[in-house]
């Protein structure tokens, strides 16, 4: 029995060891990926309602892994956040987004998105040089600050509100806009909407799924849209997958929507090729 226990322990230890190695291996591969230029920028269109024209785009990171193919952020962002690598990744996406949209606006002003929305992990709010870095990205690419939106999740509101508020105000002084991503999922009080300078609310996909045929959910979404508009905010509905959802949101007065029904995240060139075609030929 004693031997069996020992064996069990060894099996356990071996598994721990394997997990640790695999994590270290993953971490090393992600670090190399960043330096080898394997990250890719994808853009998902955000359309204006009711006309359905592309208004802006959200920047979403992908990893073109030579061994495993195109990786979605869910498979590497958590590790990147744990290890701090997210800072480098977000900075690359920010620069690449500003550069791409700026070039597009110069080359085809008629079809280019008017703005680009970039995700920032909450850890950036602890970095004193965040504002300088955003200013640098705007200056080197020439993108107008009004064309840049920075998306943060509600979890940043659970941090030191004074620090968060000061950082966001600094960013807004540059002329960039601040969006609250996944609005309604953060379990935070609404009090921050009084104290924190924000410009955009993105209603989380979980409120849009199941919207059709659920009166209670419709009232809730409608109330969020009204609240946002009353506060002078732009409201974007995320995760729109069906025409019926879009119709409901339009009737509710929602002015912006994003989701597979309207366009998938895709390489900038693909989105651009699609938009170059006149809507009604
Ligand atoms: P998010 O910021 O909430 O981005 C929206 C996610 O929903 C994207 O997933 C997008 O592909 C997906 N999506 C869009 N429309 C639909 C739809 O109609 N149905 C469904 N089911 N999904 C839809 P993705 O690209 O896999 O990104 C997942 C998350 O990873 C993002 O959620 C964001 O939190 C994070 N992320 C992505 N790129 C970055 C980045 O550059 N920096 C940071 N810090 N986080 C990022
Ligand atoms: Ca987002
Ligand atoms: Ca979101
Ligand atoms: Ca999300």
Helix content estimate: 40-55%
How would the global form be characterised? Answer: globular
**Any ligands, ions or cofactors bound here, and which?**
ligand C2E, calcium ion
Number of strands: 9
Count every helix, treating DSSP H or I runs of 4 or more residues as helices.
10
N-to-C order of helices and strands? HEEEHHEHEHEHEHHEHEH
Percentage beta strand: 15-25%
Descriptive tags:
single chain; alpha/beta; eight-stranded mixed barrel; 10 helices; 9 strands; 47% helix; 19% strand; binds ligand C2E; binds calcium ion; PAS domain S-box-containing protein/diguanylate cyclase (GGDEF)-like protein
Question: Which helices and strands occur, and which strands form pairs?
Answer:
Elements (H helix, E strand, L loop, with lengths): L1 H35 L2 E10 L5 E12 L3 E3 L5 H7 L1 H23 L7 E5 L10 H12 L6 E6 L7 H14 L2 E7 L8 H4 L4 E4 L1 H4 L6 H16 L3 E4 L5 H9 L4 E2 L10 H9 L5
The structure holds ligand C2E and calcium ion (3 copies).
The site of one calcium ion has 4 residues, from loops.
